[in-house]
Structures are given as C-alpha cells and as structure tokens.
Design brief:
- The chain is α+β, with helices and mostly antiparallel strands.
- It has 3 domains: 136 residues, Maf protein (Alpha-Beta Complex); 66 residues, Dna Ligase, domain 1 (2-Layer Sandwich), CATH 3.30.1490; 47 residues, no CATH class.
- It contains 5 helices and 12 strands.
- Strands 2-1-3-4-5 form a 5-stranded mixed beta sheet, with helices on both faces.
- The chain is flat.
- The protein binds zinc ion (2 copies).
- The site of one zinc ion has 8 residues, from loops.
Length: 284
C-alpha cells in the first residue's frame, strides 16, 4: 500500500507509448518507486504529431504528453497515466548545437496531481540536402549511421513523402534512388530519424527525464505531504564579493508543491559571494 516514503508503492499505472520507450520508463519507475507501469499500445501516438513534419503536434510539448497519458488511462482503466514527449531545438547557451528536450509526465487522479520530469541534452538530429550519392555517404558519420537511423525525402524537408527508419546501406541506396527520381531538381533531403527506438541518443535523454520524474515522485511537500515537491525556479542576486551589489548569479532555489502551491526558498549551499568578474558594477 502507498506510504509516506514511497507514495507510489504497489500502485498501477498505464504508459501509452510507441517506439520502445517502455523499455526505459517501466523498469525505472518500478525499481525507484514501486509503481507498476503497464505498456499500452492500442493507439497510434503518431496521430498526435510526428517528427517528419507530416502530422503537426497536438498543442505544446506538455499538452501532447498529457493527452497521451489521458488516452492511456482510458484504454487501460488506470487512475495513473505516464507519457513522454520530445522536442528539438538549438541549445539554450549559444544556440548552435542541436538540442533535445524530453518531458515525461505522470498524471495522477489518486493524489489529484501532475508531476513532470525534464531533461535537455545534445541531440543527434543532423540533416543535409544532397545532390549526389557521394555527398550522402560523406554525411553518414555526422549522422552516426547506422546506430542512428535515417529519413529520406525528395527535394527538401517539406516534401510530403518520405522513407523512414533506414538502417542499412542497401535500403539507403534504394531510398536515395527513389527520392532522386521524384525530385524536381535532383536534390535529396536526408536527416536522422528522431523516433526513440532508432535514435539511441534520444532514448538516453528520455531515461534522464524519467530519472528526474522518479526523484520528484518520492519528494514530499513538508506542508501537505503530496508527492511532487521540487525545485521550480532559481532566484538571482548573489552579492559581489568586492562591492556587494547583487549579480545575476543564483542565490537560492525555490521549491514548490504541485498540490497546495506552497513555496520555499532555500539558499544554495557553499557560496556566499560572487566573483567581481560577474558583477555588472565592477566589471561592466
Ligand atoms: Zn561588484
Ligand atoms: Zn503541498
């Protein structure tokens, strides 16, 4: 039965997913939280959006994950549902490296809460427009082929037809010839297939987002005892060691409860003042 330390021990949940994500999510939530997650696959989640641009995503990343969790709960008749959703962008630092944001949600009608785990890390999402077979084969190391599979389209990334899940040189050659024949100018667009089961980099990021979720599921609010108590913001303002003016460096973490909304500030340990090099006043 659920208890204070492991609120999910022995509870049942459904996970609506395709593309093999159950292989990382189910065992992890069982071993860390004792939550028994059963895989539901009676619904084509690609209908809620695909990475090959043929189907636009349903709402935001969070909306799409929540929708999948709800569908899974309905299909399996559980009060708890898990789902995941990925997104691709450029890195949040310099904006040049391909980046992958993974979100794993737990929708919980027993405690009447939602908890989300996140992870952002480097993506394996290379792409290129090529006009010859040699150009295509030169691109393969960058795409980390064949451990990461490929998608091929005629003309450009917006073409409505594509070949997905390409994993051998032979099938790559066939797809290339097919696309080149259909292409108006002889161009072929090639990119990494971003579906999790054939993109190990993405699967690793999903695992890390699930670890984040698992940790939040065991973290209880000091006030109402609900699971899902976690750091949601950081507060800036660490004072400069030279002049004492607040800098943009973080000084405290803000913990929030998903159930009662309780918030608490916790000073970040092991730092008292900021390097004057980071101070707008001393080093403008
Ligand atoms: Zn200063
Ligand atoms: Zn609370």
């Amino acid at each position: 039965m659920p208890n204070d330390l492991k609120p999910y021990l022995g509870l049942q949940a459904s996970l609506l997913t395709q593309h093999g994500k159950e292989s990382v999510i189910c065992p992890l939530l069982l071993s860390t939280n004792g939550l028994e997650v059963s895989h539901v696959n009676g619904y084509d989640t690609d209908k809620l959006g695909s990475f090959t641009r043929d189907i636009p995503r349903y709402g935001s990343q969070l909306d799409a994950a929540r929708k999948k969790a709800r569908i899974g709960m309905e299909l399996a008749g559980t009060q708890i549902g898990i789902a995941s959703e990925g997104a691709f962008a450029n890195d949040p630092f310099a904006g040049i490296i391909p980046w992958n944001y993974e979100l794993v949600i737990l929708v919980d009608d027993i405690h009447e809460i939602e908890i989300t785990g996140f992870y952002g890390g480097e993506a394996q999402s290379a792409n290129m427009l090529v006009s010859s077979w040699d150009e295509l084969t030169a691109f393969l190391p960058e795409a980390r082929f064949p451990s990461h599979h490929l998608v091929i389209k005629p003309d450009d990334e917006y073409h409505l037809e594509c070949r997905k899940g390409i994993d051998t040189i032979r099938s790559l050659r066939q797809a290339y010839d097919w696309a080149r024949n259909l292409s108006k100018k002889g161009n072929v667009f090639v990119e990494n297939d971003l579906r999790a089961h054939i993109n190990p980099t993405r699967m690793e990021n999903i695992l890390k987002a699930t670890q984040d979720l698992a940790k939040k599921m065991t973290s209880l609010c000091p006030g109402c005892k609900s699971p899902g108590y976690s750091i949601t913001e950081t507060k800036k303002g660490l004072p400069c060691s030279h002049c004492g003016v607040p800098t943009n460096l973080p000084i405290a973490n803000i913990w929030s409860c998903v159930k009662c909304g309780d918030k608490k500030e916790e000073l970040i340990a092991n730092q008292v003042t900021a390097d004057p090099a980071k101070c707008h006043y001393c080093n403008p």
